[in-house]
């Protein structure tokens, strides 16, 4: 197969149309593995060719340190896919997490080579992936919370806006590269206390727990399989959830409910809401929480300026933005993920 065929060439509109017309169901699953990988260019192409032939969609990162995959797979092909993973690839034992709530999560397959499978950007001298925090299941994690352990959210701040564990510390961080030093500082007075880490699927806690152990924390634990596995386990075993609200996800679903609690608020009117969206103005595209009333009022935009701007002809919009004639909320901050309510 030629190199040029190992990348998607269809437009987003075409791909979503194909997805909508599918006559079968899909399952969204995720897995990761810290494992030494070599010949990444060859491996990347092998993954794409193999998984594309199975009609798998999703986002896959590989690095010398391992693999991180979130994929949408035809339901009737899951067992074959797992068998093929064992026969074609040498990733070892894998823990597969199934989405809490299904939906159209991905519309194309992307496989990328990265420096890290989670972009923490800390020195290799500050962690040892052979020495990570203890993995706790849902029962052990709940009991540790009841016993007074320190609970820390290893996600970005905006993920915790719509869902979190009770009394969890939420670092005021928008990028993974800033997270570990901030966490170390937040926990500085708790080096001998029991620490509980959690994230979406577990991967962010692996290196984070190793980092904390390296820096002298004596009792570091992590939620095995993250929020996704926890939510599935408590539902299966009819156990009350200590996680409240929604689990933020990095795909077209945006989130999946764990409990019925709505802990977020609309960033425009501050009414209760837990629906993240991106501003419909392509030159803004800021991520924010929006209630149904404000969505209708501002046509899926974050402001009146954006809602008026999208009504202009496309070429006019391009010209105005290129010439710097107008700035939107996304350009009013130096942050990657600015808080809309802080800049309005």
Give a verbal description of the structure:
This protein has three domains: 111 residues, Alpha-Beta Plaits; 113 residues, Oxidized Rhodanese, domain 1 (3-Layer(aba) Sandwich); 68 residues. Helices cover 30% and strands 19% of the residues. The radius of gyration is 21 Å and the shape is globular. By secondary structure, the protein is α/β, with parallel strands linked by helices.
Write the layout of secondary structure elements.
Elements: H1 12-20, E1 26-34, H2 40-53, E2 57-63, E3 66-74, H3 78-88, E4 97-98, E5 109-113, E6 134-136, H4 138-146, E7 150-153, H5 157-160, E8 163-165, H6 179-186, E9 194-198, H7 203-214, E10 219-223, H8 226-236, E11 243-248, E12 255-257, E13 276-278, E14 287-289, H9 292-297, H10 304-309, H11 314-322, H12 340-343
Parallel strand pairs: 2-5, 6-10, 7-9, 9-10
Antiparallel strand pairs: 1-3, 1-4, 2-3, 8-11, 11-12, 13-14
Could you give a short description of this structure?
This protein has 344 residues and is an alpha/beta fold. The chain has 12 helices and 14 strands. The chain folds into 3 domains: 3-113, 2-Layer Sandwich (Alpha-Beta Plaits), CATH 3.30.70.100; 124-236, Rhodanese-like domain (Oxidized Rhodanese, domain 1); 276-343.
């Amino acid at each position: 197969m030629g190199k040029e065929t190992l990348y998607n060439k269809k437009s987003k509109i075409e791909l979503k149309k194909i997805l909508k017309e599918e006559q079968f169901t899909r399952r969204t699953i995720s897995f990761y593995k810290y494992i030494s990988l070599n010949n990444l260019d060859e491996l990347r192409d092998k993954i794409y060719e193999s998984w594309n032939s199975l009609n798998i969609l999703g986002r896959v990162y590989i690095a010398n340190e391992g693999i991180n995959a979130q994929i949408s797979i035809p339901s009737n092909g899951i067992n074959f896919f797992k068998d093929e993973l064992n026969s074609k690839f040498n990733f070892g034992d894998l823990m597969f997490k199934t989405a809490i709530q299904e939906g159209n999560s991905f519309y194309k397959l992307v496989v990328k080579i990265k420096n890290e499978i989670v972009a923490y950007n800390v020195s290799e001298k500050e962690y040892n992936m052979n020495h990570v925090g203890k993995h706790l299941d849902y029962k052990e994690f709940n009991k540790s919370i009841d016993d007074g352990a320190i609970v820390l959210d290893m996600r970005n701040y905006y993920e915790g806006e719509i869902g979190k564990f009770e009394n969890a510390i939420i670092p005021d961080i928008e990028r993974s590269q800033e997270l570990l030093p901030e966490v170390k500082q937040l926990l500085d007075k708790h080096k001998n206390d029991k620490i509980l880490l959690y994230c979406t699927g577990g991967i962010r806690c692996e290196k984070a727990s190793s980092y904390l152990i390296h820096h002298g924390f004596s009792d570091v634990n992590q939620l095995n399989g993250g929020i996704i596995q926890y939510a599935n386990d408590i539902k299966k075993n009819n156990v009350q959830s200590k996680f409240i609200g929604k689990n933020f996800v990095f795909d077209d679903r945006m989130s999946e409910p764990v409990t019925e609690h709505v802990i977020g608020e609309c960033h425009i009117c501050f009414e209760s809401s837990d629906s993240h969206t991106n501003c419909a103005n392509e030159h803004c595209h800021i991520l924010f929480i929006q209630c149904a009333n404000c969505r209708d009022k501002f046509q899926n935009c974050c402001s009146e300026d954006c809602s008026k701007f999208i009504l202009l002809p496309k070429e006019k919009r391009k010209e105005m933005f290129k010439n710097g004639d107008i700035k939107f909320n996304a350009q009013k901050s130096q942050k990657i993920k600015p808080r809309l309510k802080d800049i309005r």
